[in-house]
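Weekly structure sync, notes
Attendees: PL (lead), two postdocs, one rotation student
Agenda item 3: pending single-chain targets
PL asked that the sequence for the first pending target be pasted directly into the notes so everyone works from the same version. It is reproduced below exactly as submitted, 574 residues in total.
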Amino acid sequence: MGRPDQAMNAPTTLLRLSIENVGLIERAELDFAAGLTVVTGETGSGKTMLLGGLALALGGRADGDTVRQGADRARAVLEVAPDAALRARLADAGFTLAADDDLIVQREVLASGRSQGRINGLPASASQLREFAGALVDIVSQHEAQRLLAPAYALDVVDRFGGAAAVALRDDVRELHERLRDARERVDALRDDDGRKLARADFARFALAEIDGAAIEDDAEDERLRERRDVLANAERVVAALAIASAALEDDAAAVDALGAAETALLGLARYAERFGELASAAGALQSDANELAARIARERDAIELDPTQLDVVGARLDALDGLKKKYGGSLAAVHAQRDGFAAEIADVDDREARVAAAQRQADELALALGLRAAELSARRRDAAAAIGAAVGAELAELALPAARFRIALEPLDAIGPGGAERAELRFAANPGEPERAMARVASGGELSRVLLALVLVVADRRDRTALVFDEIDAGVGGATASAVGLRLARLARGAQVLCVTHLAQIASHGEAHIALRKQTVGEQTTIAAVALDPAARRAEIARMLSGRERGVALEHAAELIDAARRPAAKVRT
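Predicted structure, written out during the meeting:
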């Protein structure tokens, strides 16, 4: 079948799926056609296993039971021609492709259950494979029809039908809702925090007043006071000693005069040697220092206070400073640091109303923006839901449900949520006179399948151009309805790759490529092979699907079905 042609701006295209040792499939390769590829086979021939291999490559569940009995590992390899958007996403995740490289996704599962994924040879986790799966394949199965019963799925259908503008609005609503939630949490936190801070601020105000009231001079005031206290406590002894020292320096026979005489005598010798002049200078300097020392001693003596009340004053001041140090850090430097902290805490509390008001304004602005965007989204959803209902109703009429009524009901929520201001529910009535009810309550399995197919058809032009895989979506239908399903799948395949696993000849006849799964038993081992059918083999397979025989009238009927399937397609293409 070859590689589908792909222009530079073409969507992502599946090329080939290769699987080994998956379930009963020893080895199989499936080349994807550009349009509709059908997969058929007898019951138990492994159609589910083939799709299981595809799911395995795309990061689906994997365990030891996946591996064919007797094999040590299972492997699935999916080759894809990526578009520019997918290439960019891969590059952002660290999987950069050369301009002419295809994407090769590989997954291996050991019999022990351990698995390893790779993207173009680089290790990739199962979650990374699943992340890219949405850009590659959308699988729709008879079990997937249960998605119709989920409100989130219904709402997603409405938004996708509404187009890029609706999806962008939905994203805006989700972002605004998250920001509003965060803003309201900030307001509550500020209010709760301010309540606690108010209690702490009362103590901070008291402490600040106590520290400021002490009027501490500097970080060394206590040291100076302690020294002064020691002097005052021994004032008489200090004064007496200073008096002796002063008298000694002021006596006529004291060392001061002797130093002066020494300087004079040495100066007389200076003319004989320079060193005698230096000695004279040293004697003069000592005399000058002695005079300065005498003056300082006299000043200290005169400054000593013998008033015992001063000792009490200094002691009281020291007690006050020691009390502050004990309460606020152990030193006057620590007291000053605590003081600055108390002042900052008080300023922070005093500013609380402004901060709460600012946070509340931001929350109010976000709430207004959220309301406006949600209202705009709601309007688009109402238009889209009405259009979907009409379009799905028309499709159901062609799928043997002519009297069916289908509607997407939008019900307002009590409050705007991350998904908008409403929830969606699919409502259905199969027969005239029946009230519309939630599909979960009234639709049969066959009806669910047809509604899902109709929805897929209706939103096909609004969806991302990923490949569509239908796994026995024809459950519960047959005859003319099956032909109508096949026709619609062929129509869908004109705009996207479609792979359909089916057991109905009316659907298989519309395939542009046909893969048959054949079960083979050799000895005690059963395996399954995927066979690409040529026109003759295809007629035989469809004949088998019609009557269980591959000859005679069944072959003629199969040829008629294939010709009939080609005519509408040819008519549309012209």
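Discussion points:
- Residues 569-574 have pLDDT under 50 and may be disordered.
- Residues 151-214 form the longest helix (64 residues).
Action: rotation student to compare against the earlier draft before next sync.
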